[in-house]
Amino acid sequence: MIAPISIASKRKGSICFVFIGFFVGVIMFFLLKGQCGSETVKIYKDENGVIHLTDAPPKSEKSSLNTKRYLLDKYAPKNVIEVARLAVVQVISPFGTGSGFFISEDGYIITNKHVIDESWENINKKENQIEKQKKIKEIIEGRIELEEKRLNKEKGWLEWAENQIEQVKQYLSSPSVNDPNLEERYEVFRLTYQKRSKQYELDIEELNIYKEDFKYGTKILDKEIEKFDDRVIQKLSKTPIKIVMIDGTRHNAHLIYKSRENDIALLRTYGIKPVHLTTTLFDDYEIGQQVFAIGHPLGLKTSVTSGVVSSYHDGYIQTNAQINFGNSGGPLVLNTGHVIGINTIKAVGFGVEGIGYAIPISIALKELEDYLK
Fold first, then answer.
1. What confidence tens digit (pLDDT) does each residue in 170-206 have?
2. Are residues 182 and 74 in the same domain?
3. Which DSSP helix (H) or strand (E) runs through 346?
């Protein structure tokens, strides 16, 4: 049987509850006003979205809510392109690095899917690509070896021909020699030698350039092989995605969305209000209009290259602004500072220069509209 509660007990409990509530309210008032002690109390949100109340927030968080103002004050940009650089970040994922850019003040970052894709399907695809590249490497090594043998043989002939020309020249210089046919054959032979000698020099120069390109490509391939070693993959698969801002500040980034159809991914970092890029009217650009590609190519920090809109090809914006390794996921912006595309592909090959492609920002925004409202 439940014992009855007296009115006096109820009143007493109510008074205690009111007193405790009042006491807590007073404490919170002084905490929030920063009057408890000599230090000012701060409320801040960390990169995981957790609220903290303290009089000494970590150094990395002290200016987190004022990131935009901090960067603008620190770098004092002189034009809209310099402002755009402040919105671009380096993206470091377990399986590579690339670029990205803030598209909103609440920490959303657009990048390429292939920069952060950590699916095993993607790993297997990459390993198959590496195997194909290994076979191509063997073929190129064989071609280089054959070309070196040919040029060595040509060098031997040129040395022999040079000796023959010198001997015939001395013979023809003798006063007792008068042989018009020999002189004519000598002249034809000498011209042939000169022509082949010049071609030999050009072939040697071309081969050396080819070998340098091949050497550079081999280094990249070796790094890819090392990166995709099974033991390394097991270790890296647990590594979080990081972003590095223009001032070197690092933050954890969370994968919010990964497109199935397009090379687009959306990340988000918490606790900062960054400089972010804005868009113009969808597809509001023209052929020949000046554009700038911003990113982190080859480890260079927020590098800018310029060019023009060359064409609109198979759903991509084609540009001659240089897009190098590491630029993937960075923005393609107009001279007004508005972003119009996401840098994603560079056409490579001998004799191919100045052909890069970007996904129109309109495609990305349409696909990401549920997140970027």
1. 888 888 888 888 888 989 999 999 999 999 999 999 9
2. no
3. strand 339-346
